[in-house]
Specification:
Helix content is 45%, strand content 20%. It is an alpha+beta fold and 93 residues long.
């Protein structure tokens, strides 16, 4: 698999402008109308993550959900993170 290069991280930053992309991880906070909306989104993310066998760190604060993606086994960002972020963005609308 391998870590994303500097150029690939720059491209990812442009493609996923709502995400904060760092060297080791990428993060995005989603805001919903209420707790139920936030939990429904988390359930959808859980299904995507399980299918990809790539699981984000999830922080839930009432109507806000923060996701952090990183490939821990590789020590940073990989194409798995980029692909999961794209899939998450599709369900977030």
């Amino acid at each position: 698999m391998g870590l994303l290069s500097d150029d690939e991280r720059t491209q990812l930053t442009a493609e996923r402008s709502d995400w904060t992309v760092g060297t080791a991880s990428m993060e995005r906070t989603f805001t919903f109308d209420d707790f139920v909306g936030a939990m429904g989104f988390v359930s959808q993310v859980a299904l995507l993550a399980e299918k990809a066998f790539h699981h984000p760190d999830i922080d839930i604060r009432w109507n806000r959900v923060t996701l952090v993606l990183s490939t821990h086994s590789e020590g940073g960002l990989t194409s798995q993170d980029a692909e999961l972020a794209a899939a998450i963005d599709r369900i977030a609308g």
